[in-house]
């Protein structure tokens, strides 16, 4: 099998159901999801299997799901079923809820970083946000699986949550943004302190 086909030399690429210009927002969207998947793979290489077995299993699952999302975004024909489903979103929500409890309480904005793995996961978070913005643009122009947008929205929150847990498990403190107001205070605890 050859890795090159020469069919893209004129600035077009094949998608499911036809061909598009390589700078089409649909191609930008699934290309950004592919970029994200590569950064997730990088994060996986930076996590110790003994400390992060749960997160590693989840990241592998997410890599497969990102492939599903990319396939859905690359589809301009409606004759094929979408792969991304609501259960994927629900799973992320459940994991986020668990990790929020594990990480130290957060009151201020934090800077991306701490440990190398956490910094990489923050890159995953920001690339996810870019993919999400591109999917919003795509939805204004054309039909696509609406679950992909929900999934990406929740996935960026998941990455934020695990970036903090990674630092916590490694004994590395998150770096608070020094000019941040108290933005994450729990309204219940505020009432209790008055």
Automatic annotation (TrEMBL):
Protein family according to the UniProt entry: Belongs to the Cob(I)alamin adenosyltransferase family.
SUPFAM superfamilies for the chain: Cobalamin adenosyltransferase-like (SSF89028)
Subunit structure: Homotrimer.
GO biological process: cobalamin biosynthetic process
Pathway recorded for this protein: Cofactor biosynthesis; adenosylcobalamin biosynthesis; adenosylcobalamin from cob(II)yrinate a,c-diamide: step 2/7
InterPro entries reported for this sequence: CblAdoTrfase-like, CblAdoTrfase-like_sf, PduO-typ
Stored Pfam families: Cob_adeno_trans (PF01923)
Keywords of this entry: ATP-binding, Cobalamin biosynthesis, Nucleotide-binding, Transferase
Keyword Nucleotide-binding: yes
All residue ranges annotated as the Cobalamin adenosyltransferase-like domain in the record: 3-165
Entry EC number(s): 2.5.1.17
Organism: Anaerobacillus alkaliphilus
Name under which the protein is recorded: Corrinoid adenosyltransferase
Catalysis performed (reactions): 2 cob(II)alamin + reduced [electron-transfer flavoprotein] + 2 ATP = 2 adenosylcob(III)alamin + 2 triphosphate + oxidized [electron-transfer flavoprotein] + 3 H(+); 2 cob(II)yrinate a,c diamide + reduced [electron-transfer flavoprotein] + 2 ATP = 2 adenosylcob(III)yrinate a,c-diamide + 2 triphosphate + oxidized [electron-transfer flavoprotein] + 3 H(+)
GO molecular function, one term: ATP binding
Gene3D superfamilies linked to this entry: Cobalamin adenosyltransferase-like
């Amino acid at each position: 099998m050859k890795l090159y086909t020469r069919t893209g030399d004129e600035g077009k690429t094949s998608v499911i159901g036809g061909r598009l210009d390589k700078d089409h927002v649909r191609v930008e969207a699934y290309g950004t999801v592919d970029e994200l998947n590569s950064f997730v793979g990088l994060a996986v290489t930076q996590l110790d299997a003994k400390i992060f077995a749960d997160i590693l299993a989840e990241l592998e699952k997410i890599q497969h799901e990102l492939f599903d999302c990319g396939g859905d975004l690359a589809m301009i024909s409606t004759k094929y079923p979408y792969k991304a489903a609501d259960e994927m979103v629900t799973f992320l929500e459940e994991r986020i809820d668990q990790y929020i409890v594990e990480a130290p309480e957060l009151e201020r904005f934090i800077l991306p970083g701490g440990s190398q793995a956490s910094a990489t996961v923050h890159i995953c978070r920001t690339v996810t946000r870019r993919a999400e913005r591109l999917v919003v643009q795509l939805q204004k122009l054309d039909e696509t699986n609406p679950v992909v947008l929900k999934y990406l929205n929740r996935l960026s929150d998941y990455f934020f949550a695990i970036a903090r847990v990674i630092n916590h498990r490694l004994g590395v403190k998150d770096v608070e943004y020094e000019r941040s107001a108290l933005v994450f205070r729990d309204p219940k605890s505020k009432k209790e302190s008055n």
